[in-house]
Write a structure and sequence with these properties.
The structure holds two protein chains of two kinds. Chain A is mainly beta. Chain A contains no helices and eleven strands. In chain A, strands 2, 4, 5, 6, 9, 10 and 11 form a seven-stranded mixed β-sheet that branches. In chain A, a hairpin with a 4-residue loop joins β5 and β6. Chain B is built from no helices and nine strands. Chain B is globular and about 40 Å long. The N and C termini of chain B lie far apart (28 Å). The chains are: A mainly beta, B mainly beta. The interface between A and B is medium-sized, with 23 and 27 residues.
Chain lengths: 119, 110
């Protein structure tokens, strides 16, 4: 059974960047996509973007376009999400999830990475 | 303001039924699959329903989904205390070429 293992918690200064990793353990995501979702404290889920490595396509949420970059390394079954020009409002738990190409449903989730932006 | 509209909260007694609505539009729910997610306190979301009405293995048949036009619903029957969680609907939106989530519904078991 595939598990998604995310990198550890980060504390960042405003204006800096953060890169979160998501590695598929026990399988690959070659036939799937990887999506990134974040959740600010006490708030709902916010979709950030997705990558479909087998198709080479990437989509981003309009609100984050220009600040977020999602990439993937098929050889290591690892996906990355980099968010730049951090601000306090980016403080959140960041999740990666495997997504079906046809169903677009997120069927396997990582445990989340807490990113805190504070001066 | 979420693209998909869900009631912020719902409550019911144990063994009762809860129906959570998710209202969208012709660019999202009407033409794309809807999925539902359960998020227990302090944990990552979990897929409950995909492709409008299918359950992944391990999800009890107390959870069921349906879709009609621009709306979708999640039914939870035989409510249990362990069902207290936040529930989110989601689908692709062709007008913005992005995934959209509902604002979430907090279910409380009385």
């Amino acid at each position: 059974q595939v598990q998604l293992v995310q990198s550890g918690a980060e504390v960042k200064k405003p204006g800096s960047s953060v890169k979160v990793t998501c590695k598929a353990s026990g399988g690959s995501f070659s036939s799937y996509g990887i999506t990134w979702v974040r959740q600010a404290p006490g708030q709902g889920l916010e979709w950030m973007g997705r990558i479909i490595p087998i198709l080479g396509t990437v989509n981003y949420a309009h609100e984050l376009k220009g600040r977020v970059t999602i990439t993937a390394d098929k050889s290591t079954s690892t996906a990355y999400m980099e968010l730049s020009s951090l601000r306090s409002e980016d403080t959140a738990v960041y999740y990666c999830a495997r997504v079906g190409i046809a169903s677009r449903a997120m069927d396997v989730w990582g445990k989340g990475t807490t990113v805190t932006v504070s001066s | 303001q979420s693209v998909l509209t869900q009631p912020p909260s719902m409550s019911a007694a144990p063994r009762q039924k809860v129906t959570i609505s998710c209202s969208g539009s012709s660019s999202n729910i009407e033409i794309n699959f809807v999925s539902w997610y359960q998020q227990l306190p302090g944990t990552a979301p979990r897929l409950l329903i995909y492709e409008n009405n299918k359950r992944p293995s391990g999800i009890p048949d107390r959870f069921s989904g349906s879709k009609s036009g621009t709306s979708a619903t999640l039914d939870i029957t035989g409510l249990q205390t362990g069902d207290e969680a936040d529930y989110y609907c989601g689908t692709w939106d062709n007008s913005v070429n992005a995934w959209v989530f509902g604002g979430g519904t907090k279910v409380t078991v009385l």
